[in-house]
């Protein structure tokens, strides 16, 4: 099994957090995902009882700039993820994430939450 297939928690695989540049600018993991972040996301998943879909995990600097990320984004160091939970409002996801000790930015109209440690 390659490191990219590593199961980080019961429900999150390392591959889910790969840089969304699709290999154009980096090898997929310019930084490792924070185990604390992923562990807290697992706790949120358990509370909500449904999958959490990661749309952006770790990012390389070039991809971060392309998507409009701030220069010191927590994505750059593997300490943030953008995600949503199918069938769950972004506000319910945000409440569960806050209860799990995560920092949250709600992107209501885009339909996702940014979570970070």
Automatic annotation (TrEMBL):
Q: Which InterPro entries match?
A: Peptidase_M15A_C, Zn_M74/Hedgehog-like
Residues in domain Peptidase M15A C-terminal?
10-115
Name the source's superkingdom.
Bacteria
Q: Which Pfam families match?
A: Peptidase_M15_3
Q: Where is the signal peptide?
A: none
Full protein name = Peptidase M15A C-terminal domain-containing protein
Q: What is the lineage of its organism?
A: Bacteria, Bacillati, Bacillota, Clostridia, Eubacteriales
